[in-house]
Amino acid sequence: MLFKRNNQNGSASIARRLSLQAVALLAITLAVISTGMAVVAEGRSRDRLVQGAGDKAAAVADSVDAFDATARLMTERAYRPFRQKFADVFELDAEANMLKSWGMLLNGDHSEVDTFNKSNGGVATIFMRKGDDFERIATSLKKENGDRAVGTLLARAHPAYALTLAGKTYTGRAVLFGKPYMTHYEPVKDAAGKIVGILFIGFDITDFQASLNRLVEKTTFFESGGTVIIEPRANDAEAIFVSHPTAAGKKVLEVNPQAGPMLAAMRASEDAFVPSSVPLYNASIKSPWAVKRTAKTGGWWIVAEVSDDEAMASHWQTIYLFWALLAGCTALLGAGLFVLIRRNVSAPLRELTTAVTTVAQGDLTKTFHSDRRDEVGVLVREVENMRQRFLDMMRQLRSAADNIGTASSEIATGNQDLSARTEQTASNLQETAASMEQLTSTVRQSADAAR
Asked: 3-class SS at 371?
């Protein structure tokens, strides 16, 4: 029975061991495959997110371009009748600080600029050149306090300054005294071809800027990501936020001094992806990356800032759920495999163990039969054949033992007869010896008498 218990325990151990080994091998295989798939899926998921953020930024850029194209066209068209109000050649008296058109003094004459304001709703300015500067001598443009901006200079950092000084026109956005305008600047010359002034018109685009800000505010990404618009200007130090939740109009490097490398990376490509960016939209964002799209007309950068942790959260939730399902399926497969092994291997092995144990204990009366066509069935049938051979051998041994018993009885009977004969012979020999001894005594006496 000890053998039987050990064999049964061994069979159960085999079932556990095989199922555990199979599950472990399957788990390792699935872990390697699923990890590889997760890495590949992570990259593709991030690529899709980057593409999606880029598409949203591009949509904002398209809106900016569409408005800019329309506003530029309208501004250029509105400028033509304004330009016709003045002579083709202007006269500058640098010593007297006077600029004339058709011989009429323009200094302080606001009639034409006011007429343009009333008829078109825009602002207009006449600049007079003073050295390398341009001074407003007549304008409908108002300062923050409501006064005309007469006597103020065109800022040298303004993009129109260098162009007009070189004899070229400038059409584009400008922020004048805190208000955004779509502007047009054209230099005017004297009879010698020297630039002596600038004619300017502009249209307030505050409403569009507000609409753009609302669009940018709605262009968010997950919980903490969003969009900003940057005017890159000539260099990174001059780049400013055009649209920002809290820093509109401020220089980017003043808001975040660590943004230099990021700005350089964006300046290097029209459409850029910065995988490890510094926060621009939200200072508390975690693991940010940024996508930049460029507005073609104005050159503004539309920057989409996204938290990688938030963007990939859904991806990893799916991956973790997938891994959990794989683990559950592996566990169920292991349990099913254990049951199958117990049923198809362990149970037949226990039956085989019972058969072998029965034969080993000398009980050859029980027959063994199996309809299985596998190795276990073959073993059961071989055990039955072995039992049959043992029975045949036992019959032969029993017959031989019977024969040996009969021969032993005959030998015993012969031995008894031989013993009786031996005893008779011994008795006869004793009698012969006695007779010889008597004869010897008689001969001895006869000899003595003869003497």
From this structure: coil
CA angle 87, 88, 91 (to 5 degrees): 70
Nearest partner of 241 among 213, 221, 214, 201, judged by Cα: 213
- Distance (Å, whole) CA 306 – CA 227: 9
Higher per-residue confidence, 368 vs 44: 44
Alpha helices in 141-278, H assignment, sequence order: 159-165, 206-218, 252-255, 260-267
Given strand 226-231, what is the order of strands in its sheet? Answer: 240-243, 226-231, 301-307, 288-294, 272-274
What is the CATH number assigned to the segment(s) 209-310? 3.30.450
Q: What residues does each domain of the chain span?
A: 85-204, 209-310
CA dist 286 and 337 (Å) reads 46
- CA-wise closest residue to 123 among 218, 188, 63, 204: 204
SS3 139: strand
Query: 57-71, 161-175, 283-297, 333-347: which has the minimum mean pLDDT?
Result: 333-347
Cα distance between residue 178 and residue 180, in whole Å: 7
pLDDT digits (tens, 9 = 90+) for 405-435: 888 888 888 778 888 777 888 787 787 777 7
Rounded distance, CA 90 to CA 299, Å? Answer: 34
Q: What pLDDT sits at residue 450? A: 65
- What average pLDDT does range 116-133 have in this prediction? 96
Q: Is the pLDDT of residue 12 over 80?
A: no
Average pLDDT, integer, range 342-362: 76
Closest-CA residue to 295 (of 56, 66, 70): 66
Residue position matching structure tokens 């600038």: 198
Residue found by looking up tokens 């508390």 in the block = 284
Query: For the chain, how many helices (H) and strands (E)?
Result: 10, 13
Token pair listed for 67? 């408005």
Whole-model pTM: value is 0.69
Q: What architecture (CATH level 2) is domain 85-204?
A: 2-Layer Sandwich (3.30)
| Cα of 373 vs its chain's centroid, Å | 50
Mean pLDDT of the chain: 88
Supply the Cα-derived Rg of the chain in whole angstroms: 59
